[in-house]
Amino acid sequence: MARPLGYWVLVLHTHIPYVLTHGKAPHGTDWLSESLVECYLPLYDLTQRLAAQGIAARYTISFTPILQEQLADADFRAEAFGYIDAKLDAANDDMRTFLRQGARHMAGLAYLWREYFSARQALYSQLNGDLLGAFRRLQEAGLIEVITSAATHGYLPLIGRDECVRAQVQMGVDTYRKHFGVAPRGFWLPECAYRPAYRWLPPVASDVLPAVERAGIEQFLSEAGIRYFFVDTHMLRGGMPLGTYWDRFPALRRIYEQFATQYRFEQTERTPYRAYAVPAPEPLAVFARDPATTLQVWSGEHGYPGDARYLEFHKQHYPGRLRYWRVSENKADLGAKQPYVPYDAFEAVQSHADHFVGLLKHTLWAHRQATGSPGVMVSMYDTELFGHWWHEGPEWLYAVIRRIATDPDVEMLTAAEYLERFPPEEVVFLPEGSWGEGGSHYIWLNEHTVWAWDAIYRAEARFLSLLRRYGADEALRPYLQQLARELLLLESSDWMFLITTGTARDYAEARLTDHQRRFEQIATVVEHLAAGKEPPAESLQAYHESVIRDRVFANIDPRLWS
Q: Residue 129 pLDDT > 60, yes or no?
């Protein structure tokens, strides 16, 4: 059989920070329930629909460990069913209201919402609330590939201690094995953020974190048995991060000055349409994100989700918060939004699926013309785009995968399947960077988040010190375990992201402060108990509060940090 023009690897990154026991709306359990109902269940459903037609969806999907723990939590399952019931009630109430008003088209849309949530409720019941088990079965059937990530989505290049990076990675592998029954082959670096090995200087003034020789991220991945990961294209090409960011953080600028000669040597027009090898103790491959499909699918301004026919995300009907309007030609004015027309949106899905497959084929054809060999296009997106931000996204994915399954020019493969056929041959040395703004650390480290990193570095130093002194004391083990949980949650990249983007700054600052407070109080408990003293009442209260509120990673082993 003739080889195709090339291959398509679709990578979906699935992550919600820890929100259980931390409120309901808008950044509590409703956030997680929305993603379950609008993204994860539709994704499972479209995979099953394809399988019924003899088509393996073959996407590669990460579930972060902190999300795995939440989805498997019995309390969350009850919350999710309650959330769906509330949405069904809202749809029924809206339908009655619109009918009284004589708004028959809007009442029809409310009816569609009722059917939508009824279908989700039936599917979740059919799965007995076990979404991870459902995706595990899809993987075991060879339909998809599931990969892991860092424990709490910690921003690995800026974490201060190698022991803490190693724990984030190994906890990610251990949690995956717990829920999926096998070892993961792939790893999603949070924010595609990578750091090579070098003598690292803390990027913020710190009296607890000296300059020290640090291992590259690939070292920890290789130690944990990972076989591949992903980066952004500019890093594959050895590019320098953009902008004046380094002027504001001299320590980071010195990093790049130190390696400038090496990076200039590595700068190249290296193609992103193949996999590469990264030097590591065990073979490790790296894929780069395809730039051609990124803007086309992700951008609400220039990509498919911004089409006037699709459901408008921001305009909601209260109190149920269901959406009845389309993006419309006037995108900026919520008052000018026109009613949603489902058939028009369906037509847009078909048109955009055709266009996307054409874009894949054109890009892969150009690569084959230039190199004489088939390439691989790696499209990487947040799972929450499909269904939450872009309501029609799951149906678009279904349409694209179905088209590719019958197209001889493009073959869809999981990342591991591609590597089995085409092991990487060329070795690359990657610079530091991320897929964030300017290709650097700006979104996570800036003037608004310096205090957070100072808190993280102090917590890391204190935890490692306590572990060295008391790690062998079995009586202190429960307290050290809870201390480890608070440290992992403190390290989550989400808090800094929400502060910088302004989408939930007060909430993120409060979460950081709460985890920092509980960490410090539990550390005080450990120190007092080790000295044979009664801990302060407020410290014991913070420990018990932490056990109730931050109960993830039940079998966490503090020795991961040793």
A: yes
- pTM for the whole structure: 0.94
DSSP string, 74-92: HHHHHHHHHHHHHHHHHHH
pLDDT of res. 254: 53
Break the chain into its structural domains and give their ranges: 1-71+130-440, 73-127, 446-561
Instruction: Measure the CA–CA gap between 15 and 45, rounded to whole angstroms.
Output: 19
* DSSP β-ladder status, 276-277 and 285-288: antiparallel
Q: Which of 45, 382, 407, 557 is catalytic?
A: 382
Q: Is 290 a catalytic residue?
A: no
We find that the CATH architecture of domain 1-71+130-440 is Alpha-Beta Barrel (3.20)
DSSP secondary structure of 372-416: SS-EEEEEEEEGGGBTTTBTTHHHHHHHHHHHHHT-TTEEE--HH
At 61, the amino acid letter reads I
Among residues 30, 34, 69, 191, which one is catalytic?
191
Q: Is 89 a catalytic residue?
A: no
What CATH fold (topology level) applies to the domain 446-561? immunoglobulin/albumin-binding domain-like (1.20.1430)
Burial class of residue 80 in the structure, from the number of CB atoms within 10 Å of its CB (0-12 exposed, 13-18 middle, 19+ buried): buried
Residues in the chain, total = 562
Instruction: For residues 91 and 59, give the distance between their C-alpha atoms in angstroms, rounded to a whole number.
Output: 33
Could you give the CA distance from residue 94 to residue 89 in angstroms, rounded to a whole number?
9
